[in-house]
Amino acid sequence: MSTEVRVPTLGESVTEATVATWFKQPGDAVAVDEMLCELETDKVTVEVPSPIAGTLGEIVAAEGDTVGVDALLATISEGGAAAAPAPAAEAAPAAAPAASGGDAVDVMVPTLGESVTEATVSTWFKAVGDTVAQDEMLCELETDKVSVEVPSPAAGVLAEITAPEGATVDASAKLAVISSGAGAVAAAPAAAPAPAAAPAAAAGKDVENAPSANKLMAEKGIDAANVAGSGRDGRIMKEDVLKAATAPAPAPAPAAAPRAPVPADDAVREERVKMTKLRQTIARRLKESQNTAAMLTTYNEVDLTEVMALRKEYKDLFEKKHGARLGFMSFFTKACCHALKEVPEVNAEIDGTDVVYKNYVHMGIAAGTPQGLVVPVIRDADQMSFADIEKAIAEKGKRARDGKLSMAEMQGGTFTISNGGVYGSLMSSPILNPPQSGILGMHKIQDRPMVINGEIKIRPMMYLALSYDHRIVDGKGAVTFLVRVKEALEDPRRLLMDL
Questions:
Q1: Which biological process, per GO, is one annotated for this protein (predicted)?
Q2: Nearest Cα residue to 76 out of 7, 1, 9, 23
Q3: Pairing between strand 363-365 and 168-170?
Q4: What's the pLDDT tens digit per position in 14-28?
Q5: Which of 240, 273, 371, 387 is found 20 to 30 A from 479 (Cα to Cα)?
């Protein structure tokens, strides 16, 4: 019996792809979810996993072929002898007794997301010799964006851990071995886990670059040694060549200043902890933003009397009808969408020597989590109602705190709102989230005396800060944007009338 391997869904508006690389050849044994080939679209690179365990039969779409969605790529023949790929037979001898009376099932790194090529094993929830159920969580991986939980592919006993905590693994690495079946016997716990061999093996083999990348490098006279590959195993993709062609020559990085000597009595009281990949990414992106954008911040303040009165009057009815709490974020999101229509450059980005104006608003809402700051994106926020926005913010906020956000949910934002007021911040200058050109900083609501029509009144006031890229946004546009946000919040009826 044979099973067809077809082109998966490629994404919105993407109708075709090019077969870039086949990792397997006809006659090769393949395991379930083992990567068979890689497809390249004009946007992303897509890996195609094997739907079953067996033997790769006919390859219908060769490397370089252009295929549409659901097109036939290859066939796989099922068979007991081909249930495990050849590398499984080369497992460490310590794992052999564990398979006695049962099958050895490899635990592989799951799909990490677009452009993510490696992860760090942060925590093992199980130890060698532990019994595990199918889909029970074995370990947690940490990438530079999200945490990924790895479930057990089968019920049995954890026989071997090949990637211990702290190990860095690539997207095709083996993490562990499960002995499945009634006769599964745990491997001797005293055996030290072997280091992950997959990354080293991958580094030692030749990596074929994407055909379109080779063509573009030849056209532009770019040496492959000067291009950083973002594809699997460091494979150079078309977008990598485009990035290398437009990137300015990097300035030599200044040498890091050595840490000052620490007295011995202080050193024993210090604790050195390796930065998580998420924290490293936050540090790198924020510094890149400062180095790249001509960042400037303008300030204003807003009287939230009307918003608070509206909230108080309708919050119970709103929650009863929509099943969502009426917060401040929907008002600020609506006000920003309204202002972005009038000042579109704040919602644009610079691409080389072009300015890309976005006729939509994908609103990033910065959220603090135990792991660090993440920015889930509310797509097409300008088309959403107050209720839709509140539901989306609540749902993505919970997923962010639980570490469940996917890569796709944090990509594509066009503008960002950051609410430091929830932590008590009275005034701050937010840093841009590149390649975006604007970010709004919200702050603490504080009762302050204000002069209203010649009289001193106590009003709930908030400072607003707009950081913007002065290369694309002029001071007039930045001030206009902030004033429009202020006007919409101080008189929410303006939002209904598009004023």
A1: L-lysine catabolic process to acetyl-CoA via saccharopine
A2: 1
A3: unpaired
A4: 788 888 888 888 888
A5: 387
Q: Give the span between the Cα atoms of 213 and 359, in whole angstroms.
A: 30
- Token pair, residue 441, equals 């900083």
Please check whether the two domains, 1-88 and 279-497, share a CATH topology.
no
Q: Within its chain, how far is the Cα of 270 from the centroid?
A: 32
Q: For domain 91-195, give the fold.
A: OB fold (Dihydrolipoamide Acetyltransferase, E2P) (2.40.50)
Return the structure tokens found at 473.
């946004």
- Stated as kind and residue range, the H or E segment containing 489 is helix 475-490
pTM to 2 decimals? 0.51
Residues classed as catalytic: 470, 474
Query: Which CATH code for domain 1-88?
Result: 2.40.50.100
- At 244-294, the pLDDT tens digits run 777 765 555 555 667 778 788 887 888 888 877 667 777 777 787 777 788
What is residue 484's DSSP assignment? Answer: H
Whether the CB-CB separation of 152 and 133 falls below 8 Å is answered with: yes
The structure tokens listed for 37 are 């080939």
Q: Which CATH topology does 279-497 take? A: Chloramphenicol Acetyltransferase (3.30.559)
Distances (CA, A) of 67 to 12, 17, 20, 21, 232: 16, 5, 11, 13, 20
